[in-house]
UniProtKB/TrEMBL annotation:
Function field: Important for normal spermatogenesis and male fertility. Specifically required for progression to the post-meiotic stages of spermatocyte development. Seems to be necessary for normal expression levels of a number of testis-expressed gene transcripts, although its role in this process is unclear.
Record-linked InterPro entries: TOPAZ1, TOPAZ1_dom, TPR-like_helical_dom_sf
Gene Ontology, cellular component aspect: cytosol
Protein name (Swiss-Prot/TrEMBL): Protein TOPAZ1
Boundaries of every Protein TOPAZ1 domain copy: 199-374
One Pfam family here: Asp_Glu_race_2
Keywords: Cytoplasm, Differentiation, Spermatogenesis
Cellular localization per UniProt: Cytoplasm, Cytosol
Presence of keyword Lipoprotein: no
BP GO annotations: cell differentiation; spermatocyte division
Keyword tRNA-binding included in the entry's annotation: no
Origin organism lineage: Eukaryota, Metazoa, Chordata, Craniata, Vertebrata
Length: 601
C-alpha cells in the first residue's frame, strides 16, 4: 500500500504490526484520509487473516470515533468486514462495528445481521445473546427496516439457542410495531368505510391528497392515543420511503396540503406535519436528493410550520439535535442555491447550537462551523457583506460558552471579510466587524486596521478614525518609539498614511500641550523625525520621497494648519523637521477642549 510518511509502516503493512512501546508514527488514518482508510480495510479483508481483521476493526472504530462517513466511505467494505469477522468467529469485533454504525447513522444490511444470528445459533453461543439482542434493538431504533420473515428467522434462531422467554419477548415486541403496519395496509379499523383497497389505492396511484384526508378522519375518530401514534408512524414511514422512487413529485407536499386543509386549524396536526417533514427531509438529504428536500422545506415555510423546535418522527432523526436538524435544512437550501432560505432557517432557530434543552455533540458543532463558513463565502462572492458579517457573528462559541470552541481561530474569517469590504470601498461593515473583534479579544490584521483608519479619515469620518487609532495604539499596531511623546520628539514611520501621520501629530500636540502653552515655549523645539523603515514597505528613495509629501500634507490637513520646517538629516539618514510653535499653539487653542478628551489616555 502507498502510505503517507507519517503513517507507521510496521503497523499498517506487516502481519506482526508495530511492537514499539511508544511509536511516533500514526496508527490511525488522519481525518480526511478516508480513501486511505478504506484501502487499508480492503487489503486486510482480502488477506483473510484473523489478526489483520482485528486490526481492521481497531482502525475502523478509532477512525469513525472522530469523523463521520464522507464521500469515500464504502458500505460494501464495511459489510465485507462484518462477514469476514463472522466467518472467523470474531463476534466481539462484530458488535464493536455494529455499535459504531449506529452512532454514525450508517446501518448495515439486514442480511449481515441475519448472518450473525445464524452463526451464533449454529455454534450455540448463548453467552453472546444478551449483547446480540441489545445491539439488535439499537439497530431497530436507529431505523433499520425488517420484513416479517426476518423477524421469524431471528426468533427461530433464538429458540434454537433455547433462550429465555423474556429474551424472545423483546424481539416479539419489536415485531409488533411492524404488525400494526401490516394491519394498516389490510384493514383500517379506525375508519370503517375504508380498508385495504383504499390505502393501496392511495399509495399505488400516488393519491396523497386522499391519504391526507384519511389521516384527518382517522385522527378525528380515534379514541386511543397509542392507536393514533401508530397510525402517524405508519404514514410517516410511507412518506419517507419516497426517496426510493424516481418520480419527480414529493408526496409529502400533497399530503401536508390535504391535512392542513381538512384539519380545521388543529395544532396537533401541524406538529405532526412538522415532525413528518423533518423525517422526510432527512431521507432526501441522506441520498442527496436536494430538490425534493427543498420542496419539503418550502412547503413547511409556506404552511408557517416552525419545524426547528420539533423532532423527527421516525428513524435516527427522532434523536437528532436541534443543531443537526437546522444544519440539514440549511445545507439543503445552500445546495439548491437559496442563501435566503438558509438564513431563514438559521434565524428561525436563533442560531442555536448547544443548550440544556437541545444538547448536541461535537460533530454537530463542527458541521455548523463548516456550514456557516460556506454561507459566509457565498455572501462574499455576491458582495453581501452585512449578511456575511451576521453569519460570522453567530459562529459556534460566540454566544454559547458550552460549545467549547476557541473563537480566536475565527480571526482569519473576519479579516477576510474586512479585506473584501475594502476592495469594494465599504466602510460600514469593517467598522462593525472590528468593533466585534475588539469586544471578543480577537487578533486583528494590523494592515487592515490601519487601512480602515486611513479610509475613515479620507472620508472625513474623523471621530471613528480617532477611535480606531486609539485601539491600534493600545494593541501595539505602531512602534513603541512613537509612545515617547513627552520628550518633544515625535518619530513617525515612513510607511504611515497621511491620515495616520495627522493623528500621530494630534497625539503629540496634546501630550506636549503644557510645554507648548508655557511662557518658556519660545525656547522649546518640537521635532518630528520621519523614520526610514527598511522592513516596512519602504525600499527606495522614491517611496521615502512620497512619505515626505504625506507628512507635509498631514500638517496642512490639520485645522488650523501646522507649519513644518525641514531642519536636517540625522545619522540614520532620516529627515528631521521642526514644528512651528505658533501654529501648534493656535491648534491647541482651537482644539484642546475635544482633543484632550480623545487623546489623554
Amino acid at each position: 500500500m502507498e502510505l503517507p510518511r507519517k503513517y507507521c509502516r510496521f503497523y499498517f503493512t506487516t502481519l506482526r504490526g508495530c511492537e514499539r512501546a511508544k511509536c511516533w508514527f500514526w496508527h490511525v488514518p488522519e481525518q480526511g484520509d478516508e480513501k486511505i482508510c478504506m484501502s487499508i480495510l480492503r487489503t486486510y479483508i482480502s488477506i483473510k487473516e484473523s489478526g489483520l481483521l482485528k486490526r481492521a476493526v481497531q482502525i475502523f472504530v478509532k477512525y469513525y470515533k472522530e469523523v463521520t462517513p464522507g464521500v469515500h466511505f464504502d458500505s460494501q467494505v464495511m459489510h465485507d468486514l462484518l462477514i469476514s469477522l463472522v466467518k472467523n468467529c470474531l463476534l466481539q469485533e462484530v458488535f464493536q462495528i455494529l455499535h459504531v454504525t449506529v452512532r454514525i447513522n450508517t446501518l448495515v444490511a439486514v442480511e449481515v445481521l441475519l448472518k450473525v444470528f445464524e452463526h451464533v445459533a449454529s455454534l450455540n453461543l448463548r453467552d453472546t445473546v444478551p449483547t446480540l439482542i441489545g445491539t439488535f434493538c439499537k439497530l431497530i431504533d436507529a431505523g433499520m427496516l425488517l420484513e416479517f420473515e426476518h423477524f421469524d428467522n431471528i426468533i427461530k434462531f433464538l429458540r434454537q439457542l433455547q433462550v429465555s422467554s423474556q429474551e424472545i419477548n423483546i424481539v416479539l415486541n419489536l415485531k409488533s410495531r411492524y404488525v400494526f403496519k401490516e394491519l394498516f395496509y389490510n384493514y383500517i379499523c379506525l375508519v370503517p368505510s375504508s380498508g385495504s383497497i383504499f390505502i393501496n389505492h392511495c399509495k399505488e396511484r400516488s393519491d396523497w391528497t386522499k391519504l391526507g384526508a384519511l389521516y384527518v378522519n382517522a385522527r378525528t375518530g380515534c379514541e386511543h392515543f397509542d392507536d393514533l401514534q401508530k397510525l402517524s408512524l405508519c404514514i410517516a414511514e410511507i412518506l419517507t420511503r419516497d426517496f426510493e422512487s424516481a418520480r419527480p413529485g414529493v408526496p409529502f407536499c400533497d399530503f401536508a396540503d390535504a391535512v392542513i386543509e381538512n384539519s380545521q386549524h388543529n395544532e396537533a396536526d401541524r406538529v405532526f406535519i412538522g415532525r413528518t417533514g423533518i423525517s422526510v427531509m432527512y431521507s432526501y438529504h441522506k441520498v442527496l436528493q436536494w430538490i425534493k428536500g427543498r420542496k419539503v422545506l418550502d412547503k413547511l415555510h409556506e404552511l408557517q410550520i416552525y419545524f426547528t423546535v420539533l423532532k423527527g418522527l421516525t428513524g435516527v432523526e427522532r434523536l437528532a439535535s436541534r443543531c443537526d436538524i437546522v444544519n440539514k435544512a440549511a445545507d439543503i437550501f445552500l445546495k439548491t442555491g437559496s442563501l435566503d432560505g438558509a438564513m431563514w432557517v438559521l434565524r428561525e432557530s436563533e442560531w442555536t447550537t448547544n443548550s440544556p434543552l437541545w444538547p448536541c455533540d461535537e460533530v454537530d458543532i463542527l458541521n455548523r462551523h463548516k456550514l456557516l463558513c460556506t454561507l459566509m463565502n457565498e455572501y462574499l462572492t455576491k458582495s453581501l457583506y452585512r449578511e456575511a458579517f451576521e453569519v460570522l457573528q453567530n459562529l459556534p462559541g460566540f454566544h454559547n460558552h458550552s460549545d467549547t470552541v476557541d473563537v480566536s481561530q475565527y480571526s482569519c474569517l473576519f479579516n477576510k471579510l474586512i479585506n473584501a469590504c475594502f476592495e469594494s470601498k465599504n466602510l460600514g461593515v469593517p467598522s462593525s466587524a472590528i468593533d466585534f473583534m475588539l469586544s471578543k479579544n480577537m487578533a486583528i490584521d494590523f494592515f487592515l486596521l490601519r487601512g480602515l483608519i486611513t479610509a475613515l479619515g479620507r472620508s472625513s469620518l474623523w471621530s471613528k478614525a480617532r477611535t480606531y487609532y486609539r485601539s491600534a495604539l493600545s494593541l501595539g499596531c505602531y512602534p513603541r518609539s512613537q509612545g515617547n511623546l513627552y520628550h518633544k520628539l515625535l518619530t513617525i514611520p515612513s510607511y504611515m498614511s497621511e491620515i495616520e501621520m495627522l493623528l500621530a501629530i494630534e497625539v503629540f500636540l496634546v501630550s506636549n500641550a503644557s510645554v507648548i502653552q508655557s511662557p518658556t515655549a519660545a525656547i522649546q523645539t518640537l521635532q518630528i523625525v520621519l523614520k526610514r523603515c527598511e522592513d516596512q514597505r519602504v525600499q527606495n528613495n522614491s517611496d521615502y520621497g512620497a512619505a515626505m509629501e504625506r507628512l507635509i500634507l498631514a500638517a496642512r490637513m490639520c485645522d488650523p494648519k501646522l507649519l513644518l520646517k525641514h531642519m536636517t538629516m540625522n545619522v540614520n539618514t532620516d529627515e528631521v523637521y521642526s514644528l512651528e510653535l505658533t501654529s501648534a499653539l493656535k491648534w491647541l487653542q482651537e482644539n484642546m477642549k475635544w482633543a484632550g478628551k480623545v487623546w489623554l489616555f
